[in-house]
C-alpha cells in the first residue's frame, strides 16, 4: 500500500483551490451577465428590462456544466490513473470539452448575454485543454506524483 506524500497532497489541494477559484469567478460572471436583457429580446421581441425575469435555472445549468469541465481538468491533472495511463485518460477527458464546444457553437445564433459569456468560457477552457494542457501534464505529473 502506498503512503501519500504530504507535499503531493498539499500540491493537489493548491491545484483544487485554483480550479475552484476559476470556477467561482466564471460562475459569477455568468450570473452577473444574466441580470441584463439581451439585444435580441429588446429589438426583435420589444421586451423591456421590467418584463425580463432572471433565468435562474439556465444559470444553474450553465454553472453546473462549467463545474463539470473544471472537474474534468482537475481529474486529468491530479489523478493517479491519469499518471499511469496518460494518453487514454487524456482522450477520455477530451470528450467533455469537445461536446460542450459543439453545443456552444451551435447555440450561438440568438444567444443571450450570459450564454455568450458561457460560450466564451467553454471555448477558452477547450483551448486550454487542447493547446496548453498536454505540455503542462508532464510537468504536473512530475510534481504531484513524486516517488520518494
Task: Output the keywords.
148 residues; mainly alpha; single chain
Q: Measure the end-to-end span.
A: 14 Å
- Provide the β-strand percentage band: under 5%
Which word captures the global form?
Answer: elongated
Q: How many runs of DSSP E, i.e. beta strands?
A: 0
Low-confidence stretches: none
Please give a structural write-up.
It is a single chain. With 148 residues, this protein is an all-alpha fold. It has one domain. The chain is built from seven helices and no strands. The chain is elongated. The two termini are 14 Å apart. The mean pLDDT is 86. Keywords: Membrane, Transmembrane, Transmembrane helix. The chain crosses the membrane at residues 55-75, 87-108, 114-138.
Amino acid at each position: 500500500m502506498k503512503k501519500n506524500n504530504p507535499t503531493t497532497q498539499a500540491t493537489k489541494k493548491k491545484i483544487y483551490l485554483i480550479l475552484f477559484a476559476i470556477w467561482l469567478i466564471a460562475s459569477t460572471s455568468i450570473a452577473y451577465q444574466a441580470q441584463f436583457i439581451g439585444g435580441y429580446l429588446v429589438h426583435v421581441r420589444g421586451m423591456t428590462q421590467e418584463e425580463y425575469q432572471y433565468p435562474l435555472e439556465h444559470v444553474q445549468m450553465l454553472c453546473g456544466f462549467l463545474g463539470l469541465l473544471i472537474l474534468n481538468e482537475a481529474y486529468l491533472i491530479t489523478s493517479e490513473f491519469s499518471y499511469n495511463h496518460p494518453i487514454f485518460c487524456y482522450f477520455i477527458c477530451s470528450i467533455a470539452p469537445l461536446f460542450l464546444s459543439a453545443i456552444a457553437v451551435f447555440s450561438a445564433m440568438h444567444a443571450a448575454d450570459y450564454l455568450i459569456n458561457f460560450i466564451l468560457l467553454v471555448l477558452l477552457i477547450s483551448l486550454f485543454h487542447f493547446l496548453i494542457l498536454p505540455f503542462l501534464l508532464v510537468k504536473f505529473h512530475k510534481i504531484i506524483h513524486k516517488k520518494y
